[in-house]
Amino acid sequence: DVRHLVVGQAAVARAGEPHRWANNSTHLACFRVTLYPGHPGFEHGIRIWYGLAGDGLCDARGVPSLPAESC
Question: What one-character DSSP code corresponds to residue 65?
């Protein structure tokens, strides 16, 4: 199921539902995520991801260069 959203539209991913998002354009895309109920593991994972990106260990799409480094 692929959805293409425009300004003002929303999508919901239910708990346990595999999902991803991407900006396939050359334009800046801003989005808001609400995680409810919150989960400390999610926040920890985001911190690791930003750390890897800050250390130059992610590719241009933000994916860790070596999957083992994301553990």
Answer: S
